[in-house]
Please model this.
Amino acid sequence: MEQRFDAIIAGGGIAGSTSAAALARLGLKVLICEAGLPNERRLAGELVHPPVLSDLYALGLLAPLRGAGGFPVYGFALFRGADDEGLLLGYSEISGGRPASIAVEHARMTRALLDATASQHNVTLWYGARVLTVDDEGDTPRVTVCRAGVERQLSCRLVVSAEGRGAKLRRRAGIEVERGQPSWMVGYKLAHGRLPYPGYGHLFIGGPSVTLAYQISRTEVRVMFETGPDRDVPRDLLAPLPRPFRDDVERGIADGARQTAKVFGLQPERSSHGNVAVVGDAGGCVHPLTASGIAFCTGDPMRLARAVEGTLASGLDVELALRRYERARARPMRTRTALGPALVDTLSGTSPGSRLLRRGLFRYLARSPRGRAASLALLSTRQSSSAVMAREYAAVLMHALASLRDDDGDGRPSRLLPAVAELALRGTSTLRQML
Model:
């Protein structure tokens, strides 16, 4: 006798697990098909923003995540060179938000969430299974699943692609994507790494790209570099790191045990087609510097569950429900795709305008508690308003111009005019995109 499910989820990573938990809480029977979880050699998201904890708590998954180990994260520390004391941005400055979050090694996090979800009522896990095709021509989609080398056909009302950036079901559903230029990330796990501010995500600025580092356990630190295709870490990426942390990183690089990932921005034209919905990285992603990936891996399932609540069980139009999901997802994704490139360019750009904008950002964050709270709310995905993002970007522009009056020995007109001209053009273009 054929097993019947209300929803079938392709992928048992973070987005797949939370999708299953969110839909099962509606009383729906859910099947997760997972071909095989990544091991610890894979470099992927580990730093979790506070809104993720709220999502996981609502789904009964927060305790399993905490049980996977990890280390508290209280915010971010920004450094503009090896001798900089650092600028702290604390989650506690965000009104009404959680004052801390967590970072957990990706493989441990993924396994803990999948195991906990699979034990919940209404959830079935087929490990070693892959969704091959979806035929949604009729009212009830027919899904072909390969499990243990045997293909089976199942029927359901909803199919969720939680397959990550390279989602095959998204492509087969005809959802077009706009793909950005690739970049290469190289990560090292450092034993007893000596970060300046334990419990904070560190952004080291001053090299050709920004270096990110954070603790993933009491005794381990993850450091990540953006490199070229050869995956080698050049010396100028190490220059902004303060000692003794730089010594720890150099020792880790010499040991040679590294994780790598090829990443790229991805923006699908839509978030659903027929009875197929995409969630998490399958629905779009940006530069890992924002650490927003996991927030969408849990936020999308919550939006999806709210959109389809009452639809599958009562036989109502699933496509109509998925259009509600698309509308709910559009604003936060638009903000994310505008914020990511703007932040990367501001922190690592080398043009006169980028350097001036970077000065404005640090000036603004150092002088404005409200600005720190608003900026971190956007970065952590607690705030998703395009208008708020545009307001904050405009404030940074104003501080960039105001910084020209500061006595820093760089006020020669020959340097200022190109920077101001570039800033005006860039500011106009970026604000137009945000609004």
Q: What stands out?
A: The mean pLDDT is 92. The chain has three domains: 7-69+106-176+269-330, 70-103+180-265, 349-434.
